[in-house]
Amino acid sequence: MPLYTYLLLDTSASMSGAPLEALKQALHLLCGTFITRSKQAVQMGVITYESTAKEIAPLADVQEFEIPKLEAAGSSGLGGACRLLSAVMPAQQPMLVYLFTDGDPTDDWESAIAALKPRVQQIIGVVCGPTASSTILDPLLDQVFSVRELTPDLLFETFRQYT
After folding, report:
1. Mapping DSSP to helix (H, G, I), strand (E, B) and coil, where does residue 66 land?
2. In whole angstroms, what is the distance from residue 3 CA to residue 138 CA?
3. Low-confidence ranges of the chain (pLDDT < 70)
4. Cβ(85)–Cβ(113) below 8 Å
5. Beta partners for 144?
6. What is the structure's pLDDT at 1?
7. In the chain, fewer beta carbons within 10 Å around the N or the C end?
8. Cβ contacts of 15 within 8 Å, gap of 6 or more
9. Beta strand 53-61 with 42-49: parallel, antiparallel or unpaired?
10. pLDDT reported for residue 75
């Protein structure tokens, strides 16, 4: 059975510039780590969010993934992204969610994360950008890392037990 993963990508206005570039670099690293270290197939889907959430890539083999063109605009609607993910994700397990953000959601995201957590194995946060903060996310996510500390070994540890 494949490892099912979803990426939630913050494309709000606060991600403009360095945070968005850091997000793209982290995506390259994550995809490369999945491809080289997973012992089973990895299916990955992508949802971007700002004022609205959009599924820009349904679940597909990670080896076919291409980083989409991302532009920053709007507010950080993480709650909307979590609700969209709940609506589109399959029931198969294991299921991992990687959340890339600068750490400052603007909507009712806490209740949306709480509703999503029972349906997934882990939600891993990656805060992007020089002023990114994990303070708000730490209590509700399983793990939170700064993009500056990401390595293939660290990323592998987030999914090793499922492969």
Report:
1. coil
2. 24
3. 94
4. no
5. 125
6. 82
7. N
8. 23, 72, 101, 102, 128, 129
9. antiparallel
10. 94
Residue keyed to tokens 């029931």 = 91
Give the residue among 66, 119, 112, 113 at the shortest CA–CA distance from 90.
119
For residue 144, give the amino acid letter: V
Report the 10 Å Cβ neighbour count for 38. Answer: 18
Residue the block writes with tokens 């490369």: 32
Q: Work out the burial of residue 98: count CB atoms within 10 Å of its CB; fewer than 13 is exposed, 13-18 middle, 19 or more buried.
A: buried
- What tokens appear for 44 in the block? 């990955």
Structure tokens at 143: 């793990």
Work out whether the CA dihedral 16, 22, 24, 27 comes out positive or negative. Answer: negative
For the CA atoms of the chain, what is the radius of gyration?
Answer: 14
Task: Specify the 3-state DSSP secondary structure of 157.
Answer: helix
Q: What are phi and psi of 52, to 5 degrees?
A: -130, 160
Residues 6 or more apart whose CB falls under 8 angstroms from that of 61 comprise: 41, 42, 43, 44
Residues in the chain, overall count: 163
Q: pTM for the full model? A: 0.95
Please report the pLDDT score of residue 131 as a whole number. 87
Residue 45 tokens read as 């889907």
Nearest CA among 146, 143, 85 for reference residue 113: 85
